[in-house]
Amino acid sequence: MAGPRGLAAGVFLLMLTLVISGCGASVLELDVGQCFDDPPDFAEVAGVEVVPCASPHHNEVIAVLDITDSPYPGDAEMARIAESRCRAAFAGYVGVAYDDSPLALGWLAPSADSWVVGDRQVICFVFDQSGDRTSGSVRGVSA
């Protein structure tokens, strides 16, 4: 599901309630504008380490979207919905269209298991394609 510049595949949430201690946060508590480091395993993400955007970090949340489809649309359709809606949110946050930006796009989306217990949010985030940490927010940087 890689796009022309390494578009990140959607990442599915499998656990909902774990909150990492310290500066960590449940992915369900992430807000637009927060920055976070990569979790050890994107396959099963319950919590992430939130860091100030002024400090080196891997990712920045650009949108938190509610999905109202019912029943669960399936993994492939959920990935399509997440990619489409996150791409649509990109320019409004970063200030330039995704195809004109050096940033990559990723998302955390509900899985069939998390849907059953009420997870309906897609968390859209951007990151440096190199995988390197960056410092500072990308909000409006290309406006």
Please describe what this structure looks like.
This protein has helices at residues 75-94, 112-116, and strands at residues 11-13, 24-26, 35-36, 47-51, 59-66, 103-110, 121-128. It is of the alpha+beta class. The chain has one domain (11-128). Strands 1-6-7-5-3-4-2 form a seven-stranded mixed beta sheet. Residues 1-22 have low confidence and may be disordered.
Give a concise summary:
This protein has 143 residues and is of the alpha+beta class. Helices cover 17% and strands 26% of the residues. The protein has one domain.
Q: Which structural traits does this protein have?
A:
disordered N terminus; 7 strands; 2 helices; seven-stranded mixed sheet; alpha+beta; 143 residues; globular
Q: How many domain units?
A: 1
Q: Give the overall silhouette.
A: globular
Structural class: alpha+beta
Largest sheet descriptor: 7 strands, mixed
Number of helices: 2
Written as H for each helix and E for each strand, in order along the chain, the element string is: EEEEEHEHE
Query: Approximately how much beta-strand content do the residues carry?
Result: 25-35%
Give the low-pLDDT segments: 1-22
Q: Tally of extended strands?
A: 7
Question: Strand order, biggest sheet?
Answer: 1-6-7-5-3-4-2
- Gyration radius from CA atoms, angstroms: 14 Å
Note the topology.
Elements: E1 11-13, E2 24-26, E3 35-36, E4 47-51, E5 59-66, H1 75-94, E6 103-110, H2 112-116, E7 121-128
Parallel strand pairs: 1-6
Antiparallel strand pairs: 2-4, 3-4, 3-5, 5-7, 6-7
